[in-house]
Amino acid sequence: MSDRTEDFDFHLPESLIAQEPARPRESARLLDVPEHGAFHDRHVSDLPSLLRQGDLLVANDTAVIRAQLHALRGEARIGITLDRILPDTSWHVLVRNARRLRVGDTLTFTGSPHTADVLAREEGGGAILRFSAQGAAFDAFLKDVGALALPPYIHRPNGPTTQDDTDYATIFAEHKGAVAAPTAGLHFTPSLLQAVDATGAERCTLTLHVGAGTFLPVRENDISKHHMHAERGIITQQTADRINAVRRAGGRIIAVGTTSLRLLESAADENGHVHAFDQETSIFIRPGYKFRAVDLLMTNFHLPRSTLFMLVSAFAGTERMRAAYNHAVTSGYRFYSYGDACLLRCANPIDAHRRTHQNTVPLSGEAGASS
């Protein structure tokens, strides 16, 4: 177990960074990573064949907002990325050219009568803003002057396109508040969900509003010193009860994406019991962590040296993930938000008996080639 950021690095050719999603969405590739043995090259459309009656898929139903804004302080241009709304309805934001801001400044926006007052500044480019628009007026303001905050590795020289408005939204999206999409959910379509339901597996959703911190690199050489930005999460009592009932019945909890997993782990106690949750979480999952609530994880392929690659290394085992990512690179899998996905089994649960729930029954004539 390493605390060195460099130990979570790997070579990734730029040509493997997806600039557009697969079409149709479920035609994306799926690397099936059992806890031991050969990897299986599949497609997302094969996911239902890996499920069984009594499983529970847990997806994130956050909806992406137009979080990228360009403000003016006098004649100075200020780049703003919304991060999260605070209890008093002010916003925590990340600011480019933050040194130009002063507490008490009023920012304006071209083409809009609305303004934002600077309430506080933080080290590292953070700030607290209060916008003059609230509620539905704020939604209309973002529609008028905001843009999608696409990850920097998706190259859009002229800004996000109208196609991105559709591509960067999941079928589960219901509650507005995310800066970035929970990208594992991008692979799902109505026909895929219908096929999932036909297996006897069940589905539910939770809400984690993905913040701007997801785009920030790990700057510390010692990952134990890395600070995770807080994100707002909600699990209702009804959803928590359903998750616990599935676990008691011997079913597997399958997190659709790292955001779903992080919220489930934030809400679970030391015995693996998931509680209702309505607060911020800044959980940082890295090797050595024992998982309390999740048996399988479906997730896209993540950046080198990122907290998310550290998370999947904690979940499936560092050496296992090194081997899986090496296979993905040599096999031409597409990486990041618009890329392909993998299905991982938990190698580090809080108690050993959960291992009996983690592997699917082998199927004859499994789709895809093994390696």
From TrEMBL:
Metabolic or biological pathway, per its Swiss-Prot or TrEMBL entry: tRNA modification; tRNA-queuosine biosynthesis
Gene designation per UniProt: queA
Protein name: S-adenosylmethionine:tRNA ribosyltransferase-isomerase
Superkingdom field: Bacteria
GO CC aspect terms: cytoplasm
Gene Ontology annotations of biological process type: tRNA queuosine(34) biosynthetic process
MF (Gene Ontology): S-adenosylmethionine:tRNA ribosyltransferase-isomerase activity
Pfam family, one: Queuosine_synth
Enzyme Commission numbers on file: 2.4.99.17
Entry's transmembrane regions: none
Compartments it resides in: Cytoplasm
Main localization (coarse): cytoplasm
Assembly with partners or alone: Monomer.
Function, in words: Transfers and isomerizes the ribose moiety from AdoMet to the 7-aminomethyl group of 7-deazaguanine (preQ1-tRNA) to give epoxyqueuosine (oQ-tRNA).
Keywords: Cytoplasm, Isomerase, Queuosine biosynthesis, S-adenosyl-L-methionine, Transferase
Catalytic activity line of the entry: 7-aminomethyl-7-carbaguanosine(34) in tRNA + S-adenosyl-L-methionine = epoxyqueuosine(34) in tRNA + adenine + L-methionine + 2 H(+)
Classification lineage: Bacteria, Pseudomonadati, Pseudomonadota, Alphaproteobacteria, Acetobacterales
Family: Belongs to the QueA family.
